[in-house]
Model the fold of this input.
Amino acid sequence: MKSQKKEESLIHVRFEYNEAIQAKRDILFSQISALRIEKSIKSYSFYRLKEIELKMILHKKMKELRITISRLEKALPKLEIPEIIERKDSSKKEVSEPKEITQSSSDIESQLKTIQRRLDQLQRNSMDL
Done:
């Protein structure tokens, strides 16, 4: 009985010569693909570490630049703009927007006045008849 169990548990697969060669090729191509993927992953991790290092360096340089700018702002005198120039700048900004609004509103008002005149003329003409 033991010999029958051994024979039953053994599985034999028979390949023809061409099938066996094709199977070996497929396995080798799979290994090549796996190695390429592994190489890509390693290069990715290398470049990712490089990126992190460069970001840290950039961050440090940005901090240094902020410190330098703040020191320069403290060391240099502040620019004093005369009030007249400030008023002109602010008035130019404020006046440009209201002018457009007043022009359009004045156009509407003038149109309303002309329409009112026409109505008055029509009423006069109708009373005269």
In short: The chain is about 90% helix and 0% strand. Residues 13-79 form one domain.
